[in-house]
Amino acid sequence: MIAPQHAAAAYFTSPFRKEHRTELRHYAAVNSDTTKVKHMRKFPALLLSMGLIAASGGAVADDMHKSDASVTASVKSALISNDETKARHINVETQDGVVQLSGFVDSTAARAAAEQAAMNVEGVKRVENELLIRDANRSTGQAVDDTVIAAKLKGELAGKSGLKTATDVNVEVNSGVVELSGFVGTADEKDRAGEIARNINGVKDVHNNIALKPKG
Q1: Most CB atoms closer than 10 Å: which of 154, 179, 205, 207?
Q2: Which one is predicted more confidently, 164 or 69?
């Protein structure tokens, strides 16, 4: 029986060693390329996973935004379904689960019913009830004046304060009484909006119920 080391020596000194060595190098090259191909196939998946991780931070913010939007929609639906509340007269804003109700309603009972309806909605952490009682004796002429005041104020807010009405600040007017509501970034923005409202011709009083957006 030939010892293993002698067999190996005999192989590499045989007349066929050159041909066999060529085959071995070819085999090694093929296997090396195959390994590279396998790794290259994994590379796109790796890039995709890295992209998903990088995007996850933005997804958290989007989820929060969608959550607030969902809460707002649910509260509006609850107000519409409630016979004691007139949903079309109530503004609903949500920031981090905190719901703000604003506008003018007919009675204290309607005000309380709106707050309770909002509190019963899943996802609501707290309700800031800024609803005011409407002037029951408002004349048709005064109603027209209120519409003019609201239009002027919205224009002034968008032009001078940089606040976007209908997205940052809600404006409601009843018998010359103005209510400002919504969420803004700073106390200066809130104060500026109140100052602009007080300088509008025909405004008798201003309820500045604008809240500050939570920081973070």
Answers
A1: 179
A2: 69
